[in-house]
Design brief:
The protein has 191 residues and is mainly α. It is 73% helix and 0% strand. The chain starts with a helix and ends in a 14-residue tail after the last helix.
Length: 191
């Protein structure tokens, strides 16, 4: 995949050199719209890499023993130690996995967004997706993030300058009426 990614990124950069209008749908001189095709190939590659990462994370937490150890150490490190699960190893593994996933996220975002100080809004949207889906649920985080993405895209069609506002209004509605999220469970106080 790295070779494909570099080729698609080079084609997208060439498309930007030829002008944004070509990328937006206008055809180039020979009439093929190669820039649009390169941009769509890059988007397709990002979707494939994202699906592979999501599937790997789901497999880790739902099927593998290491994922169960990580969940046990996260919920109650003392109890996990009593049950024979060393809490330091799952915590270290969590930091390593987060670093790898964040690296892949940067790898996927870099060709589309220029690196600037406003990239932090992507993290806020991801947080909104997790809250809407429900904390502690990987399936909920995925579905919540898809909902945030769809709301953002459709709000851009109608209210182009208020896309962030609509996402966070949706977040506020969920926090008011269903604070545990779509797939979250109500958590009682610990005794």
């Amino acid at each position: 995949l790295p070779g494909i990614h570099q080729k698609a990124a080079a084609e997208a950069a060439e498309a930007l050199d030829n002008g944004i209008a070509d990328l937006a749908g206008a055809h180039n001189a020979d009439g093929h719209g190669a820039q649009l095709a390169a941009h769509l190939a890059l988007q397709g590659e990002i979707v494939v890499i994202g699906v592979v990462i999501i599937a790997a994370i789901h497999l880790l937490f739902e099927k593998l023993y290491v994922g169960k150890m990580m969940q046990a150490a996260c919920q109650d490190a003392y109890a996990a130690n009593l049950m024979g699960v060393p809490s330091i190893l799952p915590i270290a593994a969590t930091y390593m996995i987060v670093t790898v996933v964040a690296g892949f996220g940067g790898y996927m975002v870099a060709p589309i967004y220029m690196v600037r100080n406003t990239l932090g809004t992507l993290q806020l949207r991801a947080f909104a997706g997790v809250v809407i889906g429900g904390f502690g649920s990987i399936k909920g985080a995925i579905i919540g993030s898809l909902i945030v993405g769809m709301v953002e895209v459709f709000s851009t069609m109608f209210l182009s300058s208020y896309r962030d506002v609509t996402v966070f209004l949706l977040l506020l509605v969920f926090l008011l009426f269903r604070p545990q999220g779509l797939f979250g469970e109500k958590i009682g106080d610990k005794a």
